[in-house]
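Internal tracking record. Fields below are filled automatically when a chain is submitted to the structure queue. Please do not edit lines marked as system-generated. If the sequence contains nonstandard residues, flag them in the REMARKS field before resubmitting.
Queue: standard
Priority: normal
Entity type: single polypeptide chain
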Amino acid sequence: MDPNTTGTESSMYLPTKNEFLIGGKYRLVRKIGSGSFGDIYLGINITNGEEVAIKLESVKARHPQLLYESKLYKILQGGIGIPHIRYYAQEKDYNVLIMDLLGPSLEDLFNFCSRRFTMKTVLMLADQMIGRIEFVYNKNFIHRDIKSDDFLMGVGRHCNKVFLIDFGLAKKYRDNRTRQHIPYREDRNLTGKPRFASINTHLGIEQSRRDDMESLGYVLMYFNRGSLPWQGLEAATEKQKYEKISEKKTGFPAEFAMYLNYCRGLRFEEAPDYMFLRQLFRILFRTLNHQYDFTFDWTMLEQKVANLASSLAAVTSTSDETTATTISTTMVPQQVSTAQMTSTNTVNTVNNGATPGKIGVKPNDGNHQNMKSATGSFLVHPPITSRLLTYAVNELKCKKSTTIVPEICHINVSHEQRKFQRGSHPE
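SYSTEM-GENERATED OUTPUT FOLLOWS
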């Protein structure tokens, strides 16, 4: 159960998928996530087979937010990287919001990439993420909860597109007609996740556009460093703590310091110069001789797994053809059944500790599969699935056969990757 879920929400009765038809055409399939508001389900439109994400919130929730969030999504409709809303209503004892089904969150992909993104991936993501926030600002709202979990990748032809979600804490910062900005205030309660909150937010100052942009800077640092400088630091004195923070920053490109200094220097009502911030990272991208080819770190992992499958196929004996077939089905766009994915204890063990995303991905389009974890079933992006299942089958094959070269069986499985497979990873 999500620790933020209220007692009322966590204990609410959920009808079986066969008895709960939403809006006359949407049926629940399985739970794929949860949050402080309630739960997220994979759903299907029974009239055309289209899969969707369905958010359910108890009408008895102490702080209902789905109605507000649905209104925000309607205001933002049509924006690049904004999910499309299909339906909102109160059904039986629930507030229901139905929206596009998206891929894994960047936090999920970060975990599966051993909690470190290369600078190339960070910079490609930064360009899109700035654009998403700019669009929200142009609609006169601030997000107020920018974090790694709220950016998701699309699926299908949108698989390289970043989406921004979760507008339950968003706030209107200026009037549509008069363009009057909200007033500066102090002694405000902390809104959003403390880890990525701006300095002014921690000081109790009313949030504005500058704060979302500062939070984004922290998210980008987090992706490249694996953690933030202030996470888990212990020191006897303040001086020693600052020295440790300085060590953490060593080797980090100056452009990120320039980004944060710029955001922190903005006045309360001042609009960020989005093009300036994009250019900071674009120039760094070119300086590092990267190509904007949408080859993210998880894309590279998929290719490595495909190469591993080819190596295994070359040394697999006839008696192991069935296992090899299981591996190959995860490498190509073919349907993989849940039974195949969970047929061995090894597969289930590998996925212990994996975290479900906020909105799941398609399981039936041949490119996404359902996985089991200690917390239940969830859906994952193909590079993740292929990688984990291949490791599981490799371990099984190494135990069964002495004809498989150990180096091939364990190729690309680092110590940190094995720690993650066991369900433990650094914060």
